[in-house]
Give the backbone structure.
Amino acid sequence: MKTWQCLSCGFIYDEALGRPDEGIAAGTRWEDVPDDWQCPDCGTGKADFEMVEL
Amino acid sequence: MSLSTRIADFDDPRFDPFETFESATQSDSDEDPYVRLAGMREQKSVFAVDYRELLGSPPDETMRDLAKYMVLGSPEIQQVLETPQVFSNTIFERNVGLCFGRSLTVMDAPEHTRYRQLFQKAFMPNVVSKWGETLVDPVVIGLIEGIKHKGRADLVKDFTKYYPFQIIYKQLDLPQADIGTFHKLAVGLTCIVVDVAHGVEASQKLGAYYSLLLEERRNSGGADLVSTLAQAEADGERLPDVVLVSFLRQLINAAGDTTYRATSSLLVGLLTNPDQLEAVRRDRTLIPAAIEEALRWEPPVTVCPRLTLQPVVLDGVEIPAGSEIDAMTGAYNRDPARYENPDHYKLHRKQQRHMGFAYGQHVCIGQHLARVEMTRALNALFDHLPNLRLDPDYPPPKVAGVNMRVPAAVYVRFDA
């Protein structure tokens, strides 16, 4: 499981946790997150996320 | 010549920026603004009204000529903040632009996006978490050392009012002798909405000082925030001096004042709910939830103004281009359709979005640092002030203010 970070605001998407309240189940891999998904804090698209080690 | 000899105070020694700024954020009535706003939201979502006038705050001198609309409905607030191509941040050119300069706050995309990503690098969670031990702990523990033998304190006057600012001074690595005047000028900047002349004077003087600091640090290889930002680079691009100085001018207000307010309100939330205070004291893994709930319940900033770039219809209300739109993010956080019993501080809530750090492209750049600071502050208070509780000799603390909120005092007792 990996973590991805929004370059615009620092929001972390953690594959292990997913975003259940947005319909993205825990364990959803980044590549399986819908392409039109946006950062829940700042609205940035997936293209402006990068993988980070926490 | 050392920097200290070049920091200039206000020409008028009688001017008190602290008092002027606080008066601009407060109401002339004792009414709880959230009660008024909740009643209005039941009628509709958008009102042609100046919220400052409505809630008894002095008018913003820099916005006098604009038609004003207050947005109270949660879906409409969200729409405003996620549609920057219609609801623009350039409204801030009128006030923040005059005192801070061309900071991120006055910019729209694509300029905003480019610079935001450069600045954000210095405030990513993995960067700021390292500051917890080196910068935050020495400050919070130092302040608590000064009160822990007394058995009682006002945690605003003795703690929250100082700790975020002292952390910034450490981040900037300011010469000790400059700090008093520096802080006065920084607060003076924020007086712009009610006192344009002093806001501009503070801006010029702090700008000159920061330019010297930049010159001194640019190639120093230092690890302080000024040196780090001066060297920040993305795609071969560096931050222009004017943008950098503007960002630094905003820092005291954006990072200091807000954290002082948020931490003070967090303490009110916990201390006025002793069962929840006890739960967090015993189980520190609850601290993140305690902080998020405080930011929902009493966000330090309750309004996000925007300027309409084109005519728009919001909840059936026709709004012309060039209007001021006040998205009431504090009211969003108190919407009963989103949060059960929204006026109560309640630790165990379903995790969902709040707008305590605003929302959208301009969401608080320092939010991760604020969380580190508040976490360390709360842990240190629990660790060093045993049996922390409200002082029964005083009335319970109350959070007050219109667009910026804080309790005047938080009187406590503890076992010395």
About this structure: DSSP finds 17 helices and 14 strands in chain B.
